[in-house]
Write a structure and sequence with these properties.
With 92 residues, this protein is mainly beta. The chain is built from no helices and three strands.
């Protein structure tokens, strides 16, 4: 059976109550006698396994380090140089 949190509408005191999924809890607050409201807590999310990091989607490398694809790390290609046999045409 799961635990549910109920908060008092008047004093704010939180009670933990264990009851079934289809059961309701209608008892008043033990401290002041005011009605209780159910508190919804966020569910925990756990990311386990591969596929949750930026480096997981990249292909494997030969070493243990992962290289990033930045322009600074890529080798620069030089523009083709004109051959010495090609003569420049005179400007008209």
């Amino acid at each position: 059976m799961p635990l549910y949190d109920y908060a008092c509408t008047k004093c704010g005191r939180v009670h933990e109550v264990r009851h079934g999924f289809d059961e309701t809890y209608g008892e008043p607050c033990e401290a002041c006698g005011a009605p209780l409201r159910r508190v919804f807590n966020p569910a925990p999310v756990l990311f386990k396994g591969s596929g949750f990091y930026v480096t997981d989607s990249r292909g494997s490398t030969s070493g243990s380090s992962v290289k990033s694809d930045t322009a600074a790390e890529k080798p620069k290609e030089e523009p083709p140089k004109p051959s010495p046999s090609a003569k420049a045409e005179p400007a008209a």
